[in-house]
Batch of 4 targets.
Target 1
Amino acid sequence: MNLLPSGICFSVCVTIFWFTSEVDASWWHMGTLGSQVMCDNIPGLVSKQRQLCRQHPKIMQAVGTGVKEWIGECQHQFQNHRWNCNTMARDHNVFGKLLHRSSREAAFVYAISSAGVVYTLTRACSQGELDSCSCDPGKKGSSWDDKGTFEWGGCSDHVDYAIKFTQAFIDAKEKKERDARALTNLHNNRAGRKAVKRFMKLECKCHGVSGSCNVRTCWLAMADFRQTGDYLRKKYNSAVQVVMNQYGTGFTRALRKFKRPTKNDLVYFEDSPDYCIRDHDSGSAGTGGRICNRTARGADSCEVMCCGRGYDTSRVSRTTKCECKFHWCCEVHCRDCHEEVDVHTCKGPS
């Protein structure tokens, strides 16, 4: 089994990626000994994280299988921007050296990864995949909302359990450090966890004669993770630059013109690179070869995406479904339409 180099491990980003790319499923079925050997060989974990890993191998496995989901959400949110949440193959961690800098992008990565772990664990609990949790045991008896009273039933997502475990595991390394960077990481981790709980929604089923809804049975359910991603993307846009306070115990806004950061805001210390040119030290993959929109005026425009270097245009063939018709009952028939389209890609640095 090949291990990632030790010494550089930022929060969940290295650890969880290691589970998905390096750990063979057979390790988890070797019992306590197999889990201990596996957990002891993950680079960069502090003692508290190794302890939790040994005690909860099924949770580790569940989180490992869900990591692609939150990385995919990160890449969706930034697909049309110079920094597109790109991952770095064969690097010390999944995002390369991006996390060496306390930038807006690093803040978003910490928040979305923390949120992703909460979401994955909550779902695993509700689906009965873990021995240590299931549906929320506190949702019993009667309650009420703006529509009146209802009875708790079904399976309410146990998000509080997931938040508690995620905080204990992910924050353990940062709490050991307690420097300026650790404080911002802890803040952004918490903002990510809170974001998932923000979008819990009450779902109900009506009971009564002819659907009269005399009695309602309700449960709390997580919203689609896209809502969390959209929310954290907005928090990225309004992230607050901070500096350490005079006592070295916390941080405050860097400039008076900035708003005071709340517990829901993302915070960062350092300015971001422009991500125009590939730079291994800053974690920038550059925009050479990226597809751009020649007619747009936003972040995905060729002018912005290509950083003034210009772009190449190529003619490509594309097949799409067209002239779709509904046939009773119940099929949709479409034709395959072929077209030639122009694709514009940014030039690399000269």
Target 2
Amino acid sequence: MGKTKNTSLDTVVRDFILLGLSHPPNLTSLLFLVFFIIYILTQLGNLLILLTVWADPKLRARPMYILLGVLSFLDMWLSSVIVPRLILDFTPSIKAIPFGGCVAQLYFFHFLGSTQCFLYTLMAYDRYLAICQPLRYPVLMNGRLCTVLVAGAWVAGSMHGSIQATLTFRLPYCGPNQVDYFICDIRAVLRLACADTTVNELVTFVDIGVVAAGCFMLILLSYANIVHAILKIRTADGRRRAFSTCGSHLIVVTVYYVPCIFIYLRAGSKGPLDGAAAVFYTVVTPLLNPLIYTLRNQEVKSALKRITAGRGTE
């Protein structure tokens, strides 16, 4: 299925079949409902954050919340690239995805995922400037610079996604077309290639390692300076307020990077836990982000109250 003969008598893959997540057959309906609810809540939660930042003048004038709005937009799209396809795995429908659809899914997955990495780094840099350089912050991080940095993150993410998609699908696929995964991702697709994938695997490891590890190290460096600056604050209330502005971002970074590093940068064989880790950072994390920022961020909660009370434009 999904293959056609060419003149060299080899078979050419026309589509792929995603085998999805392993699960007991009696849980199919429950898992369909769970992932469907997660998807709807993810879209609504991130849309709420996006509209709140846009509608409240106090928030949309600050780079921190501009970045938060961009993060919500990314989460909505990342969820839309992954979850609807995943939901189909729990239905009787055909599990095949066209070759071009697989290329597009892999590209957008790595494009949006790497853009998030860059955005988390920008958010850490913004907090570093706000806490460690408070007097110069309005000059060092203004709206124009924030826009340029965000645009740079999008361009870099697009380049990363293009590199991964081009390297993966430049190889011939002429044999089995069953992808033992719930999405078209690099390692799962490369197992089906009819050519040596050593170079691809090395480039993938280095490329993703540079992006993920590089961004992670910059975030750690930013927060090392932030902690050092906070410890110099004399009052306990001042330290508490400074830490509260960074707590949400640290939680989000942790729940994103730990599964990502587990999947792409660890050595050794890959096991069933890879699927669970991938589901966590591709499906669960976009759901958690708006919850973390609304429950832990007093300014977002205050803005929501103002908008609800009809005072969002004051």
Target 3
Amino acid sequence: MIVTVTPNPSLDRTYEVPALDRGEVVRATGERVDPGGKGVNVSRAVAAAGRRTVAVLPLGGAPGALVADLLAAQGIEVAPVPIAGATRSNIALAEADGVLTKINAPGPELSAAERELLLEAVRSQSPGADWIACCGSLPRGLAPSWYAELTARAHAAGARIALDTSGPALLRALRERPDVVKPNAGELAGAVGRPLATVGDAVKAAEELRELGARAVLASLGADGQILVTGEGTWFGEARVDAVRSNVGAGDASLAGFLAAGGAGPGALASAVAHGAAAVRLPGSVMPAPDDLEPSAVTVTAQVPADRALREPAP
């Protein structure tokens, strides 16, 4: 069973448009409404694979009620923490050529009491969890040290932590030795304070995160694949993708695939790559089901192509 924690969830509306012309009336060719937030997406992907998952998240107002209903409809157990503010609503515009424009609202501010209720909700769901996946940005009212506190409490209870966040929240949490962290290339570059131009640069940055406390680093490099850096070894994985429809939630699908496959070693990396590749072929933030996966298109190797230039360098 995988518990996910999403401190700043959202109601996500995705519009598919031929092209985005500023100042013009743009007619959408498709529309989706999904429960959003990185941890929510992980739960959706885990549920799509037929695994049990519990989503812990603060919810408020009409958008929060709709998020809970949408999650329940997908077979996801919800452990809501009622809050006074309304859950944020986000908008994504997906153009036909694969370009995505996102407008993310800041979200509500959590009170001190709501912050403690959220930690207590995680504690109550921890027994029996294979993993606790803590994902996304922190809302107003939660200090950058909040993920570090959650990680420390979870480890004290014997749980394993997967962390997908960035900036000060990531750096603070590394001190508590999360079991795996999952940055993308930009977040990895931000954590080490320098640009990444090659796969080797990304591996070096991941090794530095391990020196700071991460036990394993699963890093998404966009179209350039993914790397897994652990104390047991380093692996590189990639998959053939003929057409990208939307990359919303692809990293979250990757983390779900990694954890569902055990959360360790090259087999779990292959699952992560397969899930991420399947996600970008789907509309909006739709999470892949087993039938969407193409394991034969995935390659994983310990021979990391360190000199390969990244098609999307991280500044």
Target 4
Amino acid sequence: MPLTPEQLQDIQNARANPQPTLRAVSPGMEQHLYEAKPVLDHGFVRVIDYMGDDSAIVQAARVSYGAGTKHVSNDEGLIRYLMRHWHSTPFEMCEIKLHVKLPVFVARQWIRHRTANVNEYSARYSILDREFYIPRVEDLAAQSVVNNQGRGEALTGEEAERVLRYLKDDAGRAYDHYEEMISDEGQQGLARELARMNLPANIYTQWYWKVDLHNLFHFLRLRADSHAQYEIRVYADAICEMVKDWVPAAYGAFEDYRMGGVQLSGKGVEVLKRRLAGEAVTQETSGMSKGEWREFEGVFG
């Protein structure tokens, strides 16, 4: 288990001391509260706190839109209406705070979502643990020949073994030098804020990450997608399981309209209309670029 004994004790203490509350709670999320969901080889995601549930979204929407939503017959229908028409502010009434342990290179990709509050473990103040992300053999892949930011075919045989050996050896050697540089035995010892520069990007860091549901859905739409990098996608998948239990109606709408839906350009809509009218439309007559046409055909054939 990637948790330290101290963290495990904190979780046990928190779960053993429930407090009465008058605020809305989500029974599904209560089951996840404080528990760590293992991710990758040393990482995890756990819920520290949350605010709101499906009813909070509905409550905010009815305050905001009043009589304009009276034609929606039930709460789930209203939530689906909000998702369908991109009314985002009611979803911002729900928030979640996560404790995440993740490799530094994943954190650098994750932090590009600038709509959350983040507090990261400080390597200026504390010493990082000797924990590195080492991929499984089946997750080692060559550069994609069609996507400059993606993977292609899996590495095999001696090449895969050599890559794994380099990753393990280089990480261990870098950490040995890190420990040697910060040691004050027989020397002054280099400052931690300087010594950390020698650590590899696959070392693990930790942070608290607090975000509202609207921006969390945006994160999940991009990072739980099949085209996302595997190492961040597995974190997004773990969060999806938690959110599904937290706000089931909102997550169902998100799955339907965002994850399972398709957004069409004006040209795409026009091509569909022409096809339905019996016209044989090609890329040259569609008005789309080759890239747009390839994506269109990937969905509609």
